[in-house]
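To: structure desk
From: M.T.
Subject: fold request, one chain
Message: Could you run this one when you get a chance? Sequence is below, nothing fancy, just the single chain.
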Amino acid sequence: LDALPAEMVVGEFPWRQRTVLMLNADRVGLQEIHPAGEGDALGGLHQGSAGIGSASAAAAPAEIHHIYVLARSGPGMFALPVEQVAEVVPAGPMTRMPGAPAEVIGITQLRGRPLPVLMPAVLATDPAESGTGVLMVINATAGRFALRVDSVAGIRRFPLSRIHAGAEAESGAEGRAGYLIDSEQRVIGLLDADRMTAASGAAAWRALLPPAERETLPTAAPLPTRKLLLFRVGAQWCGFDAASVVQLTGWRPLLPVPDTVTDLAGLIEIGADVLPVIDLRVVMNAPVVVDEWTTLIILHNDDDGSRWVAVSDRIDRLVTVPAVDLQCAEAPPHPLIAAVARVGDRMVSVLDAASLFRSD
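Reply: Done. Structure tokens follow.
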């Protein structure tokens, strides 16, 4: 490690009596990893954008993954996004609270602070005896609480193709956000902490805490948010306001328009309409590659009611971003970029669809 450049290490943490170094993925070159083929001379190694070998230009980009914590409760298994789970601790003694909401099975102490322990109906199991199982400490907008579960199965990465938003996700009933399909084709319920607290009535269990503790919790009032559709253009992650998005569809050949402006890539038939197409890869000076991930985004122009089509390299997902996390770009690297936002560990460029329609 003496020869390892300092900028390649971004941190460290203890794990089972060992010190684990956290490497800078951008420096190591792990953004695009593809398994080496059986006939590859590298054998069981992997190819990346740097380090051991390089992925060929023809190789399909690695599928996007999201990370979840899996837990068992009764006969079922469910998952929560890893960023919502603060820690997992053994369940200790709990104090029952007369008159508490049905989902609150008690109050426990964690490092001297009272912590509500919830057993929402969505977990579909009877409350266990105090001190059994484990507690998943959850950070939600409404405050910190714990879920009592039988056990935690681990942390797993799921590709986008195995993550499905169920019909119940629209209403957020009982905290459900959809489901996952694991490698053995088992269905795992997907939960969301903010939806869970909204369904359970967070104000009721917050009222059980001492006044001093309630003052340290964030307000339960919802913060202004914006819903964004995330997608990739070249190596850059971008987003459109979801209100501007009408439809997504896979790539199909365009109808060429001779002697037209540069930004107009062609025309395409969507239903009974013929719509103009703008290739964001060309507009933003990114490589133009057509593969199975290439997606057409149909956008609505509020100014005149027209519809346009934008070409992207890959669709990721819909996300809800607190409005305070969006920062206006004072000197944007491209005229289309209206703001930047942090989503997880990514910096996302929020594109202004209206500027795209007015583009020459």
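Reply (cont.): The CA atoms of residues 170 and 279 lie 31 Å apart. Let me know if you need anything else for the meeting.
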